[in-house]
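Work Package 3 committed the consortium to producing structural models of liganded targets before the mid-term review. Because experimental data for this complex are still outstanding, the team generated a predictive model from sequence and the ligand definition alone, so that downstream docking and mutagenesis planning could proceed in parallel. The input record is reproduced below exactly as it was submitted to the modelling pipeline, together with the SMILES string for pyridoxal-5'-phosphate.
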Amino acid sequence: MPPSLYRWDLSRRPAKRAAMQRRVASFDNDLAPAPDALAVAQWVRARAALSGGVDSPVRAGSPVGAPTPMLASGHGAHVLDVTGRTYIDYICAYGPVLLGHGDLRVAAAVGRAMHAGAVLGATHPEEVRLAERVQRLFPSMQRVRFVSTGTEACMSALRVARAFTKREKCIRFEGCYHGHSDAMIFSAGASSLSTPSLAAGVTNAVSGDVIVLPYNDADAVARALLGHAGEVSAVIVEPICGNMGLCMPVAGYLQRLRELCSKSGAVLIFDEVITALRVGPGGAQALYGVEPDLTCIGKTLGGGLPIAAFGGRADIMAQLAPDGAVFVGGTFSGNPACVAGAHALLDVLAEDRGFHERLEKLARRLADGLAAIVRQRGLDFPVTQCASMVDLKFRKGPAHENMAQAREVDAAAYAAFYHAMLARGVLLPPSSMELMFLTGAHTENDIDCTLQAAHEALA
Ligand SMILES: Cc1ncc(COP(=O)(O)O)c(C=O)c1O
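The resulting structure, written out as tokens with the ligand in place, is given here.
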């Protein structure tokens, strides 16, 4: 742990301490237990340096009334906070960590690449080889462009779709999250619970071009395409939604979106930033047998490093400069260090053919265990699981199918559960609209300890 984290000595500055604690108290509500002095000191320091103490609003933990523990390091399936406590991690950086924290195979590959120049500012052979590997895994991605984040991938895919169709509007779905670009930051899943006004700072011109519809309602899409005939450039969707908890597509939904887009001339964009490589090597499109026109991938791709991509039909991607007129660039796009991380991950997945199956079995153990505990407690809460993603929704009835149903969650009960689990060494996502991610480093023992903690917490 870096010693600098402990430099703040509150006891020597009582007045400052009181003022700082008042500021930190803005994190708290009656759901959160009082943080200990060291954690308070760290957050005081963070808030004085970082805007809001965080670099991404979800980490402030507003829905559970306290920021997530400030983490010093991650090892496999576990993370260590600055006060020295360890947790079994189910946040897993909100998706990118597929092999586990600090995977040595990724670290070694990235280290080697760093020595040969972390960023070169020119196309390099490993970048081309990575694009070829992506093409093999996602045959719909006939052409690929690497960027650094999922936000860039989705924003760029939409721009390409607008240029290709020469239309301005797009359809997206409430509860899906496609990054924080202007056009995409409405009704954006978990973010809408931690951010008061998602439209703040976005012009009416931009928001006026975005049609937001309920998830899993293909008829609503059909009506919108009819009402805006010839105006809709793209329909962007998370084929399995991971931003209102875990929300599965109802039978036939994705196929229907495919048909509607083909008929209307709108570009179908699958945002597989969460699902690519996590639900299986070919993502949700392989799982459901539906081929989008464009695909966005990210998160898991870099083995923990920031690399993302969008790609799809060659005629649509030909809109991109230098072949076409759409400008999408990036100083760090396709840099050798992140590309090496991606190759290392893909090497592991290629060698370990049983990886996804093993992970799914582990996730099922967790989901079945949670469902049994919930039943024992006489609670009628659904547990949803897909591949290595698990969601326990504090809401009565069957699994939710859209954001309106996801909102029926008992957020206060979830917050209490979150803190009870935290006290027992289990780090859950700090919002009932996020989901639990597992990694290849989680073990049956981790799952069983988690279930024991849940058993006590739900008491
Ligand atoms: C489905 C989806 N798309 C896009 C993004 C944006 O990715 P990034 O945070 O890398 O910009 C996210 C991030 O959570 C996401 O879940």
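Reviewers should note the following from the model. The domain at 48-101+354-457 is CATH 3.90.1150.10 (Aspartate Aminotransferase, domain 1). These observations will guide the Year 2 experiments.
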